[in-house]
Design brief:
The protein is mainly beta and 398 residues long. The chain is 9% helix and 40% strand.
């Protein structure tokens, strides 16, 4: 693995952080949900004026299950480590193992896993050199198995689902087969945009797939190469997919701002989450059972938090920058009153409070009186008809 650059510091505040968000300009934002406050985090060597699209945080992942540190993968190929306890960047490394930007990032034990959109899948051990494998051209996404060590799944445009074992990268351990031709006997195009492992997946996982042709598919690698089912969600490309904590459903979002919860076995949409003004970029879940929460960000620069089982909007925070990815913090677990948030109204209305009847009379007196013009319109239409009839009579007499 590349040498780490130590000692990157950052000003930090000690307010509890519930959600960490990567943005389009490389700024890491920490959001406190009860107060709705967002704090910016940048390395000491970079100021806000120096941020640009080349430093965009495209992928994020936790270092381990303790959630004490996270990794941010930038567009320029740099991976930064951020300590959530100390609120500062502690290290960074150059992981430009191949051309292109990151489409996936993960960590198993002491191995960092990256994948770029040009198909360069790299394993970066701390003590040895990297292992690299080309997984095909035009890769759109990579997902890391939550159970099987060093196992990842990849997919892209005309690059169907493949499952790889990091211990033997000679060939994939599973390669999906395209669905059958459509009713016109035409080949169905392949465009895998998002992947999601079920939480109980082992060496032979069950994987949910979203496509750029608004299709949702479920693959059981133990049973067959073709999907168990294939259905559609909306009419726009799937941009994000996240498996639920209970393993019975998954959450999807598309480029038109539509977000829903899909049942895993049947593919039916159980509930929909509304309010987005642009494409949904990332979805994360926290908690279990009735207390679970859903956080989602998108191109409209808002962070929205919903109740997972009841599609109600609980929190909405404007972040000023376009958001690309997010992670739920471990501090959310330590916040006992977080699931008891009050629901926000779906539409905001402006109300006027009148302290006395006199103020109310003054309010009505200042209003402009609007006259009913329907009678005048009727009179004009009648006169217009009479003029037309008189002209016709004159033409007949002639």
């Amino acid at each position: 693995m590349a040498d780490l650059v130590k000692g990157i510091s950052l000003e930090s505040t000690r307010a509890p952080i519930d959600v960490w968000i990567g943005t389009s300009l490389g700024v890491l934002k920490g959001v406190c949900l009860p107060t709705g406050r967002a704090t910016n985090y940048l390395p000491a060597s970079i100021t806000l004026s120096q941020t640009d699209k080349r430093k965009e945080v495209t992928v994020m992942c936790w270092e381990d299950e303790s959630h004490d540190a996270l990794y941010c993968g930038r567009r320029d190929g740099i991976v930064q480590k951020f300590s959530c306890q100390d609120r500062l960047f502690t290290a960074e490394c150059d992981c430009t193992g191949g051309e292109g930007q990151f489409v996936g990032l993960g960590k198993h034990n002491e191995v960092l896993i990256t994948c770029t959109d040009r198909g360069s899948l790299c394993y970066w051990p701390l003590d040895t050199d990297k292992t690299e494998r080309c997984v095909g051209d035009d890769v759109s996404c990579m997902a890391v198995s939550p159970k099987a060590q060093l196992q990842v799944a990849t997919g892209g445009k005309e690059n169907d689902l493949k499952v790889w074992d990091g211990n033997k990268l000679d060939q994939p351990i599973f390669q999906a087969k395209n669905v059958k031709n459509d009713k016109l006997d035409l080949r169905v195009p392949v465009w895998v945009t998002r992947l999601g492992y079920t939480l109980n997946s082992g060496d032979q996982p069950v994987i949910a797939v979203g496509t750029g042709h608004h299709q949702l598919r479920l693959y059981d690698t133990r049973a067959q190469r073709r999907p168990v089912y294939s259905t559609v969600f909306g009419e726009h490309p799937i941009t994000t997919l996240k498996m639920s904590q209970d393993g019975r459903s998954y959450f999807v979002g598309n480029s038109a701002g539509e977000m829903g919860r899909v049942e895993l076995r049947t593919g039916g949409v159980v509930s929909r989450y509304r309010g987005f003004g642009g494409g949904v970029r990332c979805i994360e879940e926290w908690g279990e059972g009735e207390q679970s929460l859903i956080a989602a960000t998108g191109l409209d620069r808002y962070l929205r938090v919903y109740s997972a089982h009841r599609p109600k909007l609980l929190h909405q925070v404007y972040l000023k920058l376009q958001c690309s990815c997010l992670l739920f913090s471990n501090e959310s677990v330590k916040e006992p009153n977080l699931p008891e948030m009050k629901s926000l109204p779906e539409t905001e209305t402006e109300t006027v409070d009148c302290e006395s009847s006199g103020d109310e009379d003054q309010l009505w007196n200042r209003m402009e009186t609007i006259k009913d013009t329907r009678n005048t319109i009727k009179k004009r239409s009648i006169c217009h008809v009479e003029v037309k009839q008189s002209k016709k009579r004159k033409l007949r007499t002639k």
